[in-house]
Amino acid sequence: MAFRWLLFLLSFLVLLSSSKSTPTTITIPLSAPSSTKPIVFLKDPWGTLNHLASLSLTRAHHIKSPKTNFSLIKIPLFPRSYGGYSISLNFGTPPQTTKFNMDTGSSLVWFPCTSRYRCSKCDFPSIKITGIPTFIPKLSSSSKLIGCKNPKCSSFFGPKIQSKCQECDPTSQNCTQTCPPYVLQYASGSTAGLLLSETLDFPDKKTIPGFLVGCSIFSIRQPEGIAGFGRSPESLPSQLGLRKFSYCLVPHAFDDTPESSDLVLYSGSGSGDTKTPGLRYTPFQKNSNNAFRDYYYVLLRKIVIGGTHVKVPYKFLVPGSDGNGGTIVDSGTTFTFMEKPVYELVAKEFEKQMANYTAATEVQTLTGLRPCFNISGEKSVFFPDLIFQFKGGAKMALPSANYFSFVGTEVICLTIVSDNVIGPGIGGGPAIILGNYHQRNFYVEFDLENERFGFKQQSCVRI
Ligand SMILES: *[C@@H]1O[C@H](CO)[C@@H](O)[C@H](O)[C@H]1NC(C)=O
Ligand SMILES: *[C@@H]1O[C@H](CO)[C@@H](O)[C@H](O)[C@H]1NC(C)=O
Ligand SMILES: *[C@@H]1O[C@H](CO)[C@@H](O)[C@H](O)[C@H]1NC(C)=O
Ligand SMILES: *[C@@H]1O[C@H](CO)[C@@H](O)[C@H](O)[C@H]1NC(C)=O
User: Fold this and answer.
1) DSSP conformational letter for 71
2) Of the bound ligands, which one is closest to the alpha carbon of residue 171?
3) Which residue has a Cα nearest atom 7 of ligand 4?
């Protein structure tokens, strides 16, 4: 979530591997680039890294889940030049296809909507967005505005709905006031619109009527719609009553190559606590603060760099009584984020262990990334191992391409970011956000039925 849209600006030489993909179920293709390729170094964009907006999304409540009737659906998941991964979904009767950023860090599913849709600051330097495709409710016979009386309206807005639906006093049975507009603030953008009830169509006649979806008529910095895969009732997994979903992110070079992997949605009757072979699991954690209810928290116990345990203070690893702190898994964030004090410890350890390479301070200043090294002339580069160890003992040993990347052709930088704040973070929220760059070439599973996160390293590129 945080800097998600800002980071698309970064350009890299991405190290790719080739390989095969995954299991069976509802698959949504994700695409990715397939070759090693230097990217042009952009001018200003780096400055934007410094603006991290508040991570908290205020969200709402208890939307009833229509039960679905499929066991599994695969949807292709495509890497996008803005730094996220997107899926196509079909809404309406007849169906209209729009693209959505697949985001485990938020919950509402919304599309750019109506011919009057406006997006401000959507002309990204690296992607020329010439007209974002929009959904046209007029062309769909199943489009319905959600009314104030609809339980989905009150569950989305929560208790404050009373003041927003004043025409609908508690005794009137047939009030016609529509559910008030939503305004969602993301870490670096926002969107606003009206809630619709629509039919969501998957291939093979798998049809979900009455799906709550946002018809956004105005956005800032949103290159496409968002499919919220978070934990609130309005998210896609909640509305479909999924028992789990999984994906494997293909590495890419911040471009829009048509290579995808599968996002798999699992519905139907549960499989008990059967584990997927080869996966390591760590339980999802609860956060007592409702403001962060969208997020998938995991308990990170240790960060180990080149065999050295980086001593991260407890308050960052575990959410406090105010809900701040802790670690979340977020497909909508590009680079892994660490709050300043954690980031400092990690960056210093890399600086120490890689002290025999030449620091590229100019690039550090330009990009906000640190440390960066000029490796021109080096035949090979030694990268200290980076291991994240979670509750239950699950260890995630990252391939070096997931935490170091070329910036230009001579300089490599650690691709972990932080905010610019000295001392305690500004916005609160998670202290560590495991972004999609970090998750590349891992098969990951959000096992909602058993409340756990599973992963294994593998190549995500289809053969
Ligand atoms: C679900 O699909 C199966 C097979 O297609 C069918 O037999 C069953 O009646 C369906 N159940 C519901 C609730 O629609
Ligand atoms: C419902 O609507 C009808 C017609 O619009 C109106 O006559 C009636 O009084 C309304 N009932 C209530 C309980 O508001
Ligand atoms: C830097 O140190 C590592 C081990 O500490 C070594 O493997 C690598 O070759 C060294 N590189 C240079 C340029 O000296
Ligand atoms: C990297 O080092 C080489 C050789 O010292 C130098 O020519 C080049 O300008 C440096 N590149 C950057 C981006 O600092």
Assistant:
1) S
2) 2
3) 376
Which pTM value belongs to this model? 0.83
Q: Would you list the DSSP string of 267-307?
A: -SS-BTBPPPTT-EEEEEE--S-GGGTT--EE-EEEEEETT
Q: Which residues of 22-42 are buried (b: 16+ CB within 10 A; e: fewer)?
A: beebbbbbbbbbbeeeebebe
Other CB atoms within 10 Å distance of the CB of residue 176: 11
- Domains of the chain, earliest start first: 2-39+68-267 (2.40.70.10), 280-457 (2.40.70.10)
Virtual torsion, Cα 304, 306, 310, 316, nearest 10 deg: -50
Query: Which has more pLDDT, 199 or 268?
Result: 199
Pocket of ligand 4, candidates 376, 381, 411: which has the most ligand atoms within 8 Å of its Cβ, to mutate? 376
- Of the candidates 192, 183, 189, 187, the residue with the CA atom closest to the CA atom of residue 124: 189
Tokens for 428? 């609160």
Ligand 2: distance of its center to the CA of 193 in Å? 28
- Known catalytic membership, residue 103: yes
Q: Which of 40-54, 82-96, 232-246 has the lowest mean pLDDT?
A: 40-54
